[in-house]
Design a protein that fits this description.
Blueprint: H1 2-22, H2 31-42, H3 45-78, H4 80-95, H5 98-105, H6 114-136, H7 140-148, H8 153-191, H9 197-206, H10 210-249
Length: 250
């Protein structure tokens, strides 16, 4: 923790030195000016409303990707033909630039919905790949034991597949969170929904309000760090609890 804080302080000092060297707030504002502006924004209700709307869009998209990716992975692992059908599509999604999807999707859906859709689309391949790997990592001997002892489908799912898939699923959550957040904010910048961080970034750039641009960018970074920290701690707690439950059962 101390090393992290020291590294952050170092780069803030570098930023401050560069701002002093440039000497023009329009080109590069000092971190103290950005911090003051961010604090001023945080005292307004509109700031939290804007942040809340952006977070809600991204979270909805990520949750949709987790649900759809898990269901699709389970189906594809049971039906090889379906797996062969969907893998090229998911590979194309992973290799296509986010901006291309944003522009295309803007033709078909409203700008308020599009950021959630883009977040889901970007996270979906990661969830699908990880959950498939987790399902296929189940020991064949354990599958045979479950078959011989005639485990019910629910018992097979909870005792056999969930413990195997859970670490892979949580890994997808960790990686997908940052990907979905960045993709969602990028979609907001290009589509400019009525209430969004992306709109504030776009308008700050449009009107040359550089301090505001940096302040909203800092808000994006802080939100990302906060959400990721909360999710990772919850995921680690869930993983430890599941592992203890499995050890107690054995």
């Amino acid at each position: 923790m101390a090393k992290t804080l020291a590294a952050v302080l170092f780069w803030l000092l570098v930023w401050e030195a560069l701002a002093l060297a440039v000497g023009k707030e329009l080109l590069l504002p000092a971190p103290t000016a950005v911090l003051r502006r961010l604090c001023a924004l945080a005292l307004t209700a509109s700031f939290w409303n804007t942040v809340g709307m952006s977070v809600a869009r991204v979270v909805c998209g990520i949750l949709a990707a987790l649900a759809l990716g898990t269901a699709l992975a389970a189906l594809c692992c049971r039906m090889p033909l379906l797996d062969a059908l969907f893998r090229p599509l998911l590979a194309a999604i992973k290799s296509t630039p986010v901006a291309s999807f944003i522009i295309l999707a803007l033709l078909w859906m409203g700008r308020n919905v599009l950021p959630a859709f883009i977040s889901a689309l970007i996270v979906l391949p990661l969830v699908f790949t990880n959950v498939c790997a987790g399902i296929r990592a189940v020991d064949p001997e354990l599958r045979e034991v479950a078959r011989l002892y005639r485990f019910s489908p629910l018992k097979t799912l909870t005792k056999l597949y969930v413990p195997s898939v859970l670490p892979w699923f949580l890994s997808a959550c960790r990686g997908g969170l940052a990907m979905g957040w960045k993709a969602g904010v990028a979609a907001e910048v290009l589509t400019v929904p009525a209430i969004s961080i992306g709109r504030m970034l776009y308008e700050s750039k449009l009107y040359l309000e550089t301090v505001d641009l940096f302040a909203w960018t800092a808000a994006v970074v802080l939100c990302s760090v906060l959400i990721e920290t909360l999710v990772l701690r919850a995921a680690d707690f869930w993983e430890r609890r599941t592992r203890r439950g499995g050890e107690a059962a054995t």
